[in-house]
Design goal:
disordered N terminus, disordered C terminus, alpha/beta, 505 residues, 4-stranded antiparallel β-sheet, Alkaline Phosphatase, subunit A, Arylsulfatase, C-terminal domain, globular, 10-stranded mixed β-sheet
């Protein structure tokens, strides 16, 4: 009996065999940046009437702008897992916020280390606790160093360095994690190593806060916004409170501007170190804008919903050595595409398991204009799973980094992930989407019998005109595709891909 192994380079990594400097030559440096709850409309370059995002605007004007970039899920933890794995989050049980992913997953950090990269994570993790004994902390998932938080964070954040006890750091949170990332990059340069850095911001997730200089930029928001109130978290008590929308937007926009400024600080640092030309910077959001941030968006829906307002996000790449002229891509693309793209760029075999993303390198020269297969989205219905056996022992899933927002009378987050030993008929429900080059099919609800909606892409930006009745064959075909994909996802969810596969040779 012969064991079928993963790709050779990953085997070398897992065996502790070092990769030589010669193997690591001529590789691009890579930085992935992600805003927390930052929807498609909330940047200046997409026409927002109030927001000031000069750095992202410049990157979009001079680099590669994805006009139709999507988060893999309308909430944060699942999308983050998709970036790390190239897989839909339902394949490994990261169904909603505070569901961890599984330690058996293969991450882009683990893959890049096989090419000699040093890997660092800074900011929000949220796919498991960051403490040292967590089997899904950044270190266990391929990162050499990390300064991270289990969830989101505000001004003066409390962060854990490499799994140690969390400590408070005074200052603006976006600038703090960029400064830490810059130190990591400087060390990589001294050691002549290519670097892979993930910077996942705590902004602009509520509860909101901002520096006086950033708040002052939004003192003159229209008075009409204060005619409406929203219920959100108090930044003082961590408990729900009701506030005028104008006050909320002022603080939210201040957070976005501070985040934008920190990206500028990173670009300036890379420039000073003569690293900017050879560094790929990739920014995106993790889901759509929440209800308390929507005032001008042309998109239907919001965070947690499957309409474009919940899953369409800013996406932009800057890489001067490779992307020399401004480009705008209309290709439907998604966070699951990040891993396959980076693997192709550096010459790494893809993991031998089901992936949901594809390489976007063809967008770097404009040659990739049509997606060869649809993108699928799915909010798994977790309500029935609460009694299942946990995949990871509960003590290892308890968070340690505190945050302002109180849930369940605690100021931190505890994670979970359930075993799914078999597939049942009820497992196919939940809101779900098929997005092709021409159509978007939406089944908006948990019941498998809910009628599908069909929208013409890209004509119906607001998803107002349901054309399902006029196109029954299109609906039928897309539903069949969806069912086949869901079956594949549920097979992954049982853990089948983690089990050693034996051949008869």
């Amino acid at each position: 009996m012969k064991l079928i192994t993963p790709p050779l380079l990953l085997v070398l990594l897992l065996a502790g065999i070092p990769v030589t400097d010669a193997q690591a030559e001529d590789l691009p440096n890579i930085v992935l940046l992600m805003g927390d709850d930052h929807g498609w409309d909330e940047v200046g370059y997409n026409g927002h009437p109030h927001l000031k995002t000069p750095v992202l605007d410049e990157m979009a004007a001079t680099g590669l702008r994805f006009d139709r970039f999507y988060a893999a899920h309308p909430s944060c933890s699942p999308t983050r897992g998709s970036v790390l794995t190239g897989r839909h989050p339902n394949r490994y049980g990261t169904f909603t916020p505070n569901f961890s992913f599984r330690p058996e997953e293969i991450t882009i950090a683990q893959l890049l280390k096989t090419k000699g990269y040093v890997c660092g994570h800074f900011g929000k993790w949220h796919v498991g606790p960051v403490k040292s004994d967590s089997p899904t902390n950044p270190g266990k998932m391929g990162f050499d160093e990390w300064l991270s938080h289990d969830n989101f964070f505000e001004l003066n954040p409390v962060l854990s360095a490499n799994g140690a006890a969390p400590k408070k750091i005074e200052g603006e949170s976006s600038e703090i994690i960029v400064a830490a990332a810059s130190k990591f990059i400087a060390k990589a340069k001294r050691n002549n190593k290519p670097f892979f850095v993930v910077i996942w911001y705590g902004s602009p997730h509520e509860p909101y806060s901002g520096l006086p200089k950033d708040l002052a930029l939004y003192d003159d928001l229209p008075e009409k916004y204060n005619d409406k109130t929203f219920r959100l978290t108090s930044n003082e008590t961590g408990r729900p409170t009701t506030r005028p929308l104008g006050d909320i937007l002022r603080e939210r926009y201040a957070e976005i501007t501070a985040m934008d400024r920190s990206i500028g600080q990173l670009r300036e640092f890379l420039d000073a170190k003569k690293l900017r030309d050879d560094t790929l910077l990739w920014y995106c959001g993790d889901n759509g804008t929440p209800g308390d941030g929507i005032v001008t968006s042309p998109l239907r829906g919001r965070k947690s919903q499957m309409y474009d307002g919940g899953i369409r996000v800013p996406g932009v790449i800057e890489w001067p050595a490779r992307i020399k002229t401004p480009l705008v891509s209309q290709l439907h693309s998604v966070t699951s595409d990040i891993l396959p793209t980076l693997c192709e760029l550096v010459g790494i075999d893809l993991p031998q398991r089901e992936l949901d993303g594809l390489s976007l390198t063809g967008t770097f020269d404009g040659s990739l204009k049509y997606r060869p297969a649809p993108i699928f989205f799915w909010q798994y219905n977790v309500g029935k799973d609460k009694q299942r056996e946990p995949w990871i022992p509960k003590p290892l899933q308890i968070g340690t980094t505190p945050l302002v927002k109180m849930m369940g009378n605690v100021y931190t987050r505890t994670f979970t992930n359930f075993k799914h030993p078999k597939i049942t008929a009820s497992d196919f429900d939940g809101s779900r989407v098929v997005l092709s080059d021409h159509y978007k099919l939406v089944v908006a609800g948990n019941d498998v019998s809910i009628k599908a909606q069909l929208f013409k892409v890209p004509d119906d930006v607001a998803e107002e005109n349901d054309i399902a009745t006029e196109n029954p064959e299109v609906v039928r075909g897309m539903l069949e595709q969806l069912r086949q994909w869901q079956t594949s996802v549920l097979t992954s969810l049982t853990g089948a891909e983690y089990k050693p596969r034996l051949s008869a040779n």
